[in-house]
Each structure stands twice: as C-alpha cells, then as structure tokens.
Amino acid sequence: MASKARLHNIDESRLTVTKPKTKAVGIPAVVNSLKISLEQMASGKAHFTGNELEFIKVPEGRLVLQTLRSHDQYNTTIYGKDDRYRGIHGGRRVVLVNEADIAELGFRDGDMVHLISEFRGTERRADNFRIVSYSTPKGCAAAYYPETNMLVPLDSVADTSGTPTSKSVIVRLERAEA
Known about the structure:
Blueprint lengths: L1 H6 L9 E2 L11 E2 L1 H8 L22 E6 L4 E2 L2 E2 L15 E4 L1 H6 L7 E8 L2 E12 L6 E5 L24 E7 L3
C-alpha cells in the first residue's frame, strides 16, 4: 500500500483506512482517497474546477440523437417491448422527436423513417423507426439501444474516458418507403 500512496503523492502519515464490515476472506481494506485529498488541502475543503462547454455543430436538417434504455431494460438485456416511463407500448423501433422538429423536417407523428448517422464522411443506417412526438429539447432526438448501436461511430469517443459518444450522435431522418 505504501508504494501506491507514494505514487499519488499522498502523505502516508495521514493515511486512513476503512476496514470492511465483512469477515470474508480476501477482501482488502479500502482507502478513502477523497478524505485523504481533503485533509491535504490547506482549507480542508474540496476544490472544484470547471471545463468550458463545447457545443456540437449540428448541420441544418439534422438532429442530435441520444441512445437510451427503456424502464424494463438492464444494460443491453431487454425484458419487454413496453416503456411505461415514456408511454411506449408494443415496440422499441421508435425515435422520440420534438413536435416542432417533426414539422420542420416535413414529417408527421407516426411516420416511418430510417435513421442515418454521419461522421467523418461515413454513413451508418438503422432502418424502419416510427416517429413519436415527444417532449425532447428542440434539435434533439432519442431512441433505444441496442437497436441504434450501429449509428454510434466506433472512433467517436470522449476525450479522457474513451467512452463512445452514444448521447450525441448527429443523425438525419429519411422517409421509409411504404
């Protein structure tokens, strides 16, 4: 433990360890690094920093899609086709879009569309989604994953964590042929 403490420039004389409440064999003691950090600061208070907001440039006629789970979904395991949180019943191939965006894009609630993401000159498609008028912010849309996973570019990731940008995929809607 001492070598790890030195690695993070922690004053080992002030190190505190929380012992586990279980008697199970092999469970290590947990170091409360937040407490250590706060104790080392002169004020004894946390110091927060902020980052500048970076706004996504969305081309005209496009929406920012976020992928989301339904209430009966655990990660990618789907237990049903209803989403009582959003009032969706009997299917998951829906795209939730602001009413004003639906009209501006020339669609109506209930129309069938294909979702096409565009990133660095490459297009990805997810076909046959029903538009649902929903109270999303203007310029935004939402659809369930894993049905829309193919729209997320593999090389579009967060700067630090490397997490896929599943909450900010630029898409256009194309009318599906009846």
